[in-house]
Specification:
Layout lengths: L2 E7 L5 H12 L4 E3 L8 E8 L14 E9 L23 H10 L2 E5 L8 E2 L2 E2 H6 L9 E14 L2 E8 L5 H12 L3 E11 L2 E2 L6 H9 L19 E3 L2 H8 L4 E2 L8 E6 L3 E10 L2 E7 L11
Parallel strand pairs: 3-10, 12-14
Antiparallel strand pairs: 1-3, 2-3, 4-9, 4-10, 5-8, 6-7, 8-9, 10-11, 13-16, 14-15, 15-16
Helix pairs in contact: 1-5
């Protein structure tokens, strides 16, 4: 089975755990994901299967939207609710206007230090492995982009937020930094991802729902329609002759729909054949050709 399915990742599973579950559900090895979620986080985890795993390269810098809760009063070593406190607890009295003004300071391109419990590597070793052994973790600040960071509600020592960020941004670090700026400590209490690029939580399926769909023979209905993928690239329907040429590595003339540098090439309505690059005019050459099902080393 080739396609993309949006999974609503439950709390407690790693992204790799979800990939393994989907591999078992679909009965095939060629499965991956489009953007890691922490085990404690829930929400949108796009899963790519079969020949469409090659689409992952186009989502490396995908924009993400989150909703969550930051708890103020103490920080933790993991920067979230699963960690051990690293500062004494203190009483806090949050002011909505002050907090919103401070949140606005974090918008834009900023430098952010990743959490010590993260997959960032130090001399080839993931930081979280060093942190678990109580070894020093000295990670360098990296540039990230926070496009939106809005405080949408306050309740006692907790603030609800919505954020739109570029790839590579750690929401745990954002909570940690906000607590430091206020001088009271803070950590990320809960996090839910509501969108990754064009994939939204309203289209997400539970693992149990996907498994049931497979048993009922309706798994295809759970997958995102291929023409909705990468909406920034126009869709072009190729003739059988052009499809054969594309698969043979030849450049072809395709219908002139726009001056877009890249297009999605389809055979019929659903079969994605290639992502093609414009050479000149209506002449395109395939950047990626997706193998036919019988060319994949997967189980039917």
């Amino acid at each position: 089975m080739n396609g993309v399915v949006v999974i609503d990742k439950p709390n407690g599973l790693t992204s790799h755990d979800v990939v393994n579950r989907v591999r078992r559900i679909l009965g095939q090895r060629s499965v991956g994901h489009l953007g890691t979620l922490d085990p404690a986080a829930t929400g949108v985890l796009p899963i790519v299967a079969g020949n469409l795993t090659r689409l992952a390269q186009f989502y490396t810098h995908a924009e993400k939207i989150y909703e969550g809760v930051i708890r103020f009063g103490f920080a933790t070593d993991t920067y979230d609710a699963d960690g051990e406190p690293t500062t004494p607890p203190c009483d806090v009295h949050l002011d909505a206007d002050e907090l919103r003004a401070l949140a606005a300071d974090f918008q834009g391109v900023i430098e952010q230090v990743p959490p010590p419990f993260s997959a960032k590597k130090i001399a080839g070793v993931p930081a979280y492995k060093l942190a678990r052994k109580k070894q020093e973790v000295a990670l360098k600040a990296v540039k990230v982009e926070i496009k939106e960071f809005d405080i949408v509600g306050l309740e006692d020592d907790r603030a609800r937020f919505r954020a739109c960020v570029a790839s590579g941004t750690y929401m745990r670090s954002l909570a940690q930094d906000l607590g430091q700026r206020l001088g009271c400590g803070a950590h990320l209490e809960s996090l839910r991802r509501t969108a990754v690029a064009e994939f939204v939580v309203e289209d997400a399926h539970t693992l149990e729902g996907l498994e049931q769909a497979v048993r009922q023979g309706s798994a295809q209905d759970s997958f995102v329609h291929p023409r909705k993928l990468l909406p920034q690239f126009p869709s072009v329907t190729a003739t059988d002759e052009n499809v054969a040429l594309i698969r043979a590595g030849r450049a072809v003339n395709l219908p002139e729909l726009s001056r877009a540098p890249l297009v999605k090439v389809f055979l019929g309505q659903r079969e994605l054949i290639a992502i093609a690059t414009r050479v000149a005019g209506t002449l395109f050459h395939a950047r990626i050709v997706f193998p036919r099902r019988n060319e994949l080393n997967i189980r039917p």
